[in-house]
Amino acid sequence: MNFFERLKQWLDRLFGRDLWLVEHCEDPPEVPRPRRVYLVGDPGLQWAAAFLCPCGCGELVKLSLMRDDDPSWIAWGEPGAKASLHPSIWRVRGCRSHFFIKEGKVVWAKEARPDRRLPAN
Ligand SMILES: [Zn+2]
């Protein structure tokens, strides 16, 4: 690897460090890594998403990707791509965080402490 390739790799790491990336797996990992959205299932058919809550509470958030479930989410991305989930994630237990994951970034919603369940949006 020449100097410029190493420099590019270093810059990629430096600027991509806070991005949330997609990983595919058959089962949710026992020790999930931070800033990873695990899409659980078989290639082409993922039925759940799992990731560590971005607030730092340490809880593993699990979301259904099955259309017939309510609530359910849409997630997309090839392994290593920037993660996106739709709609927002609004935790009704524990830390009650409310956030979006868009293009590899966590965007916090204004309503951080909801008094009601996740609205269907
Ligand atoms: Zn949390």
Features:
8 strands; single chain; four-stranded antiparallel sheet; 1 helix; 121 residues; mainly beta; binds zinc ion
| Count of helical stretches | 1
Strand content: 35-45%
Distance between the termini: 48 Å
| Overall tally of structural domains | 1
Structural class: mainly beta
Main sheet record:
4 strands, mixed
Radius of gyration: 16 Å
Low-confidence stretches: 113-121
Ligands bound here?
Answer: zinc ion
Secondary-structure element order, N to C: HEEEEEEEE
This entry's quaternary arrangement is single chain
Describe this structure in words.
The protein is mostly beta strands and about 120 residues long. The protein has one domain. About 10% of the residues lie in helices and about 35% in strands. The protein contains one helix and eight strands. It has one helix at about 5-15, and strands spanning about 20-25, 35-40, 45-50, 60-65, 75, 85-90, 100, 105-110. A four-stranded mixed β-sheet has the order 1-2-3-4, with no helix packed on it. A four-stranded antiparallel β-sheet has the order 5-6-7-8, with no helix packed on it. A hairpin with a 7-residue loop joins β3 (about 45-50) and β4. It is globular. It starts with a helix and ends in a 13-residue tail after the last strand. Mean pLDDT is about 85; it is low at about 115-120. The chain binds zinc ion (ZN). Zinc ion binds near residues 94, 95 and 97.
What's a concise summary of this model?
This protein is mainly beta and 121 residues long. It contains one helix and eight strands.
